[in-house]
Design goal:
Largest sheet of chain A: 4 strands, parallel
Strand content of chain B: under 5%
CATH superfamily of the largest domain in chain A: Nitrogenase molybdenum iron protein domain
Shape of chain A: elongated
Strand order of the largest sheet of chain A: 8-6-10-11
Shape of chain B: globular
CATH class of the largest domain in chain A: Alpha Beta
Number of strands of chain B: 0
Radius of gyration of chain A: 27 Å
CATH topology of the domain at 2-39 and 79-105 and 200-342 in chain B: ABC transporter involved in vitamin B12 uptake, BtuC
Structural class of chain A: alpha/beta
Order of helices and strands of chain A: HHEEEHHEHEHHEEHEEHEHHEHHH
Number of domains of chain A: 3
Oligomer: heterodimer
CATH architecture of the domain at 2-39 and 79-105 and 200-342 in chain B: Orthogonal Bundle
Number of strands of chain A: 11
Largest interface: A-B, 41 and 36 residues
Distance between the termini of chain A: 50 Å
Structural class of chain B: mainly alpha
CATH superfamily of the domain at 2-39 and 79-105 and 200-342 in chain B: ABC transporter involved in vitamin B12 uptake, BtuC
Strand content of chain A: 5-15%
């Protein structure tokens, strides 16, 4: 829509300009005719009005994204290209019918947890984040009305958004993917996609969860909060530093990330660590989504002295259709937040995991889980095979 | 003139033996010091007490954490650093002699690229660590075998030249396959794991790793030690070696197989660690001369000590791990350039 709006706008402007030019040119002409003059004058006025009114007639709007970029978006958006996995989850939960494809096609074990036809959407690559695999022609071939990126709002991504928008003529919205911003992101995106009612429902769910947590956690002293280590990679020796988007769920759920580089540190990403450092940090809780690590950590003599292992507080996060605690860092973490809080503070957040899972998957992921599928997820979260 | 040569010769011979002994003492001291350094604070007294308990066979549940840190974490890691450094230097010494070129590293025939491909595939398939190490070892061995077969198939050129070229080609092909796997890998957990593996690290070393790699390294070292004087003849070139009554082709296969076995087995547990196998044999040659008899132990001791220093820095410099490949490059690259500029070649 954006493509034809501009030429039309331009055409009206040119028409108006030509009529005015004719008026001036013919004023002193010999064969000057009062009737022609009148007609030209009226045409010029009409063209001018048309020119003025056009933007309102086409009814596109300007929205301000998280980076403060003003983007003209059409009113009726039918197809949305997700620039990365986090954006695909955001679009999927809000308006799954508008998603043009997955940055990475769902794996066989993820497919049952994605609603009907949407699990078969094509793989369209990613424009943003780790490893750019999208081809702009592929982006254009999916004919999106809008490109959305959900995640970090850094200069790199702002310049990428500007460049892609200029190159393709497709409006590109950059949304802040931080946890705290979730309700606002849901509402803004819902507004843009014309899914206001749904976005309000989802944003309310998130806000209620956030406020429940805040209310309960305010009484818990910092020193009484669990000391959590996020184990990534097959050896469990990759982790996310405190403050990175991959670990903010730990603090939000009332835990303390043991991989804390201190307040002044600039590095906030995924790092490698050693078992000695983990022993020194001595976390009382370990969370992971790596099955290999989870299976071996409980029998490994190296890890046996760590409090979390001694107290059997090592937890495996399911990753279907999306990870519960990360992977990608998007709306999917909301359920992980609920789950983690119940693991960190079982007496404060006593949830019925089966029921909560069923509800969340229905509300957010549009799937009615069968008893078998639900049982699979619960067993997964309990570390059983 | 003749007297002077003899004098220099005897001087070198004496200092070579001394150098090896001194190096050995230095490495042992380094290893002892390294047991005291680490993120987990352990005092000399605690370490000595733990050792005496260990020797006396006492078990003390109150100190189980100290025991874990010392015997399951730190000492295996120190042993691994020594093993990796010594093995890569030994392999580098062999390759540099075989190709009669001081700018040759153990990676010349693609063993690291092949091991990297194997490991990346293992990570991509979400296999357990042991399987990833197995894949890395198999990948390294298979790549060098392929390179050697290509070199045999291409006739009519100088054999070492063909080997090097085949190594470059097959190695870069393996590199391309690694890149392909990186693109296909899950960006959230597999991709960082592949990248960390390719940078090399001893962070996840367990004593099992050392116990499984060390025998293979020893197996590869046996022919090198037994045939050490023949290695000297190999450095003269094929024609002269043949004139002296040895079969350079068969020896070359044996030496390449040994050096590859050594490299692949340590790369499988440490990931790709560059520069050690390139720079250490060279410095050793400058110190004790080109005689393989003394060159091999000197290079191995230097490599072991250097690797131990680098790994100790890697695990203590900042609160997180610094990949070994980065540190060895920062030290190795300037030294290498200096060697290149000083332009010394001696065999």
């Amino acid at each position: 829509m954006a493509e034809w709006r501009r030429p039309c706008h331009l055409r009206a402007g040119i028409l108006c300009y030509n009529q005015l030019k004719n008026l001036i040119a013919y004023r002193d002409h010999d064969s000057y005719d009062i009737l022609t003059h009148m007609i030209r004058f009226v045409l010029a006025i009409l063209a001018f009005i048309h020119f003025l009114c056009l933007p309102f007639e086409i009814s596109a709007r300007t929205v301000t994204d998280s980076a403060g970029r003003e983007v003209d978006v059409p009113d009726n958006i039918k197809r949305v290209y997700a620039a990365g996995p986090p954006a695909s989850v955001l679009i999927y939960v809000l308006a799954h019918e508008k998603l043009t494809g997955w940055p990475r096609a769902p794996r066989s074990y993820e497919r049952p947890y994605i609603a009907g036809p949407f699990r078969d959407l094509p793989e369209t690559g990613r424009l943003t984040g780790r490893g750019d695999t999208a081809n702009l022609e592929v982006v254009l071939r999916t004919r999106p009305d809008l490109i959305v990126d959900f995640g970090s709002v850094k200069d790199t991504y702002i310049s990428l958004a500007n460049a892609v928008q200029e190159q393709t003529g497709i409006p590109y919205i950059l949304m802040d993917g931080r946890f705290e911003n979730t309700p606002r992101a849901l509402r803004l995106m819902g507004d843009i996609l014309g899914a206001k009612k749904r976005s309000e429902t989802l944003a309310k769910y998130v806000e209620n969860l956030f406020s429940d947590l805040d209310e309960a956690l305010i009484r818990i002293k910092e020193s009484n909060r669990p000391r959590v280590y996020l184990a990534r990679g097959p050896a469990g020796l990759e982790t996310g530093l405190k403050g990175s988007i991959n670990t903010e769920i730990i603090e939000r759920a009332g835990g303390r990330n043991v991989a804390d580089p201190g307040p002044g540190a600039k590095r906030r990403g995924i790092v490698q660590t050693s078992i000695e450092q983990v022993i020194v940090a001595n976390p009382d809780t370990i969370i992971t989504w790596d099955r290999n690590f989870y299976d071996q950590v409980r029998n490994s003599p190296l890890w046996s002295d760590i409090d979390a292992v001694k107290r059997r507080r090592v937890y495996l996060s399911p990753t279907a259709p999306f990870g519960w605690i990360d992977r990608p860092p998007s709306i999917n973490r909301i359920f992980g937040l609920k789950w983690l809080a119940s693991l960190f503070y079982p007496e404060l957040f006593n949830i019925d995991l089966t029921m909560e899972t069923r509800n969340f998957y229905k509300l957010f992921y549009h799937v009615e889980l069968t008893d078998n599928e639900l049982d699979g997820l619960i067993k997964w979260a309990n570390g059983q095979n | 003139m003749g007297e002077r040569t003899k004098l220099i010769h005897s001087h070198i011979k004496l200092s070579a033996k001394q150098a090896i002994v001194l190096l050995g003492i230095f490495v042992v001291l380094l290893a002892v010091t390294a047991t005291l350094i680490g993120p987990y604070p352990l005092s000399l007294g605690e370490v000595l007490a733990a050792f005496s308990r260990y020797i006396l066979g006492e078990t003390d549940p109150a100190n189980s954490k100290i025991n874990t840190v010392l015997f399951s974490v730190r000492i295996p890691r120190i042993a691994a650093a020594l093993l990796v450094g010594a093995a890569l230097s030994a392999a580098g010494t062999v390759y540099q002699g075989l190709f009669r070129n001081p700018l040759v590293s153990p990676d010349i025939l693609g063993v690291s690229a092949g091991a990297g491909l194997g490991a990346a595939l293992g990570i991509f398939l979400s296999l357990p660590i042991v399987a990833i190490q197995g894949f890395a070892f198999a990948g390294g061995m298979a790549t060098v075998t392929l390179v050697y077969m290509v070199a045999i198939a291409v006739r009519g050129h100088e054999p070492t030249l063909v080997l090097v070229l085949a190594g470059v080609v097959v190695g870069s092909l393996a590199g391309a396959c690694i890149s392909l796997l990186k693109i296909l890998a899950d960006p959230y957990d597999q991709l960082p794991a592949i990248i960390f593996w390719l940078l090399g690290s001893l962070a996840s070393i367990k004593s099992n790793d050392v116990w499984s790699a060390a025998p293979v390294v020893l197996l590869g070292l046996i022919p090198l030690v037994l045939l050490r004087w023949r290695m000297n003849l190999m450095t003269l070139g094929d024609e002269e070696a043949m004139a002296l009554g040895i079969d350079p082709k068969r020896l070359r296969v044996l030496f390449i197989a040994s050096a590859t076995l050594i490299t692949a087995s340590v790369v499988a547990i440490s990931g790709v660690v560059g520069w050690v196998g390139l720079v250490m044999p060279h410095i050793a040659r400058l110190t004790v001369g080109p005689n393989f008899d003394r060159l091999l132990p000197t290079a191995m001791l230097m490599g072991a000590g250097y690797m131990l220093i680098v790994d100790t820095v890697a695990r203590t410099m900042v609160e997180t791990e610094t990949p070994l490949g980065i540190l060895t490059a920062f030290v190795g690259a300037p030294v290498f350039l200096w060697l290149l500029a000083s332009g010394r070649r001696s065999w």
